[in-house]
Specification:
Elements (H helix, E strand, L loop, with lengths): L1 H18 L7 H8 L1 H4 L21 H10 L15 H11 L11 H7 L1 E2 L19 E6 L4 E6 L4 E7 L9 E2 L5 E5 L4 E6 L4 E7 L3 E7 L5 E8 L2 E6 L5 E6 L10 E7 L4 E6 L4 E6 L7 E5 L6 E4 L5 E5 L5 E6 L4 E7 L10 E5 L2 E6 L6 E6 L5 E6 L7 E2 L6 E5 L12 E5 L4 E6 L7 E6 L5 E6 L4 E7 L5 E7 L2 E6 H5 L8
Helix pairs in contact: 2-5, 4-5
């Protein structure tokens, strides 16, 4: 393991050195001071995405200057107008559009060389080593110090806390039985954790800058989507061996980052959104060669959502003001949606309203939640909120849909939780779990009786509410808790949670 770490450190150092061959005198220095902590010393990505020409094809240089100057909405990217002169910002823009002296290679051979098996399957226990309902556990990701906590969802007591890889992203995914949980880090590490033994079973580095992963409905295969290199990686779910690496090149010849990957268990397939070409890929995981079906779409899909049957895909581009509904059986667009601002469809949820299925999505630029009829695809209502939101959650056994003000930097709304009555489509309550501190990401217990809210600060907490009376039940201190994921809700694909 020590040798492997040395190898990876040396590789990163080599690439970082290549990256610092800069056309502008001070750009490399400014990058190291202001950008490397998030985007990596070699521009390969970290908490933030990789900053290389091949990853910036949809961001024009002028827009990049604007982002560096002003920051970027609905992200952790802060503006540098008060710290850097205009000429320094221009130099930084030139720097990130300069190719590396040597493009890093990360294929099947390189991935396989990183694989570590910590605990053989034969040594895993038959039963949990703790007394708690294994389906009412929460996996809580604490970004503040890169740890995860396993929480008992009945007693609201931590069972176990352990260090994770750096900057987990995309949410952990569960095996069909809920026993194993898989994590993806921004720098490409995939970790398999056993919730019975509370041990990490295996790890492998599937990419250099990774978006997220999906677990097949039969629990046998993982699919990893990468920003760098532009690839999809299929792994054996048992021990994380490499099965196949698929370069993500569109029919137009454009090499593309992967926006996201999902499993569509009713279809026996994975679905991947490509960020730089107008295609969606469906990969049949029931066939040994994992054939790719390419579906042309009208616009880029940075984010998407499925109906409960997984027949329909609802997607949008980050900079678009409309969405599209694609029938995955026919591969045809069947409707367009009016979606202002920047909807976060990946956090969308569904419920029945007046006898019709509806979907609702928060918005990362506008203080509005869009509610769409899933039969007519017309907007039922745009519900005004105090500010842009990022996460939305509900549960079949609660009357409210909860959404935050997380996507805004405005202190007047970043600390709020809006509770929308699913029968009236009105904001029935506004909660402030801790005034002045960011509130985000609700998740429910398996029975829907309790709602857990994150105080998204380094000195943060989980705040647990009775979902009916809205009385605060308990507060558990944590280090910048971000997402928390209930095993049962995830493996049953609850309509109240994102899938």
């Amino acid at each position: 393991m020590k040798c492997m770490r040395s190898l990876l450190f040396g590789f990163a150092f080599f690439v970082a050195g290549a990256a610092l061959a800069d056309p502008a005198p001070d750009a490399a220095k400014r990058y190291a001071e202001h950008c490397a902590s998030c985007h990596g010393a070699g521009r390969l990505g970290g908490i933030g995405p990789a900053l290389l020409p091949e990853n910036l094809s949809r961001l024009r240089r002028g827009e990049a200057v604007k982002v560096i100057t002003q920051g970027r909405a609905a992200s952790q990217m802060a503006g540098f107008s008060g710290k850097l002169a205009a000429a320094e910002i221009e130099a930084l823009a030139d720097f990130i559009y300069t190719p590396l002296a040597q493009t890093p290679v990360w294929g099947a051979k390189e991935i396989a060389a990183t694989r570590v098996r910590h605990v053989p399957s034969a040594k895993l226990p038959a039963r949990p080593v703790f007394e708690a309902d294994p389906h009412n556990l929460f996996v809580v990701v604490e970004l503040g110090d890169h740890h995860a906590t396993i929480l008992d969802g009945d007693r609201f007591e931590p069972i176990h806390r352990f260090a994770t890889r750096f900057a987990l992203h995309g949410g952990p995914k569960f095996s069909p039985t809920g026993r194993f949980v898989y994590f993806a880090s921004r720098d490409g590490w995939i970790s398999k954790f056993d919730l019975y033994s509370l041990k990490t079973v295996a790890e492998v580095r599937a990419g250099l800058n990774t978006r997220n992963l999906a677990v097949s409905g039969d629990g046998r295969t993982l699919l990893v989507g990468n920003y760098l290199p532009h690839s999809l990686v299929l792994l054996d779910a048992t021990d994380l061996r490499v099965i196949k690496v698929i370069p993500t090149v569109g029919q137009d010849g454009v090499s593309s980052r992967v926006s996201a990957v999902y499993q569509a268990e009713p279809r026996g397939s994975f679905v991947a959104a490509l960020k730089d070409t107008r295609e969606v890929w469906e990969i049949d995981y029931t066939k040994r060669d994992f054939p790719v079906r390419r579906i042309a779409v009208d616009d880029y899909l940075d984010d998407f959502f499925f109906d409960q049957s997984y027949k329909l895909l609802i997607g949008s581009a980050r900079d678009s003001h409309k969405g599209q509904v694609v029938d995955l059986d026919s591969g045809q667009k069947i409707a367009e949606l009016a979606l202002p601002g920047m909807p976060h469809l990946g956090s969308g949820i569904t419920w029945d309203y007046q006898g019709h299925p509806v979907m609702a999505t928060p918005n990362m630029k506008a203080g509005v939640v869009s509610v769409i009829d899933m039969q007519t695809w017309q907007t039922v209502k745009e519900i005004k909120t105090l500010g842009p939101g990022f996460f939305m959650r509900s549960h079949e056994n609660t009357r409210y849909a909860w959404t935050d003000g997380f996507a805004t930097g405005d202190p007047a709304s970043r600390d709020v939780m809006h509770l929308i009555d699913k029968d009236t489509l009105e904001v029935a309550h506004v909660l402030r779990p801790e005034p002045g501190k960011t509130a985000a990401h609700v998740e429910f217990t398996r029975d829907g009786k309790y709602a857990l809210v994150s105080i998204w600060e380094n000195d943060g907490a989980l705040v647990i509410y009775d979902a009916d009376t809205l009385r605060e039940v308990k507060r558990i201190p944590m280090k910048k808790p971000s997402g928390k994921y209930n095993v049962y809700n995830k493996i049953t694909r609850s309509a109240g949670t994102s899938h």
